[in-house]
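Dear support,

I submitted the protein below through the web form. The confirmation email said the job was done, but the results page showed an empty box. After a refresh the structure appeared. I'm attaching both so you can tell me whether what I see now is the final result or a partial one.
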Amino acid sequence: MKAYKADIAPILAGPFTLEGIHTQLMNLSRQREWQAISVARKLAALRSFLRFLYEMGFLEEDWSALWENPRFWRKIPIYLTVEEAQRLLDAYPTHTRHGLRNKVLLELLYGSGLRVSEACKLRLEDISPEERMLRIEGKGQKVRWVPFSRPLEGLLAEYLPLRVQRYRPHRGCASFLLLSQKGGPLTRIQAYAIVREAARVAGLERPISPHALRHSYATHLLLAGMDLAYLQRLLGHASLTTTQHYLHLLPQDLHQVIAQYHPRARVAPE
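What the results page shows now:
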């Protein structure tokens, strides 16, 4: 019973309407990075509870039937255009006390496609500057290596010396790359606040989360023609099926990719 309650209580914390439940489920799945099996379990518990409410007369309609189709709850992931992502990174100031640290975070999320949890727990020894690679311990303690960008290389050269001056880490926290003002590793909540601030500074009206930057990373690589199997390795997905969720490209984008890479899409000679 406790597990059942733990599954549905957070989902029902918002407005008790179809749209309210839908929005809450999507927000939670994005923020907590639930795997598909976790979402399926929570949906099963939610359907059972909604069916119970209907049978007891508390609901006029059987809402549980509307949740049978996964397409009902799975929205297209939020992602930025290339121009929006560029503006978000370029517009963020680095002259403030935490500016460099925050911009390092943004580059890790968009430039290397890290999960917010991976960025927050990244340690100094995980950075290989010679190869410009990051050692990432992902879900299930699986390790992968991810390249990092030239802009991040420059930011690290500025940030690391200042990191020693501006942040006094707690015992056991000295090796974390991103430190909070209180000396611990940067938290997920703090990372969300930083991304929201960056979106505001860049003039983006849509709500942007750290995971939206990871979605943008994947989307932009696919649009540039990257093979899905390579993208799977970069993102740290255990299954290619998970990576295929990023195949949400707009029709006009697909036309551009086909026109660029498929020989039959080229203009025929006159």
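Response: this is the final, complete result; the empty box was a page-load delay. Residues 2-72 form one domain.
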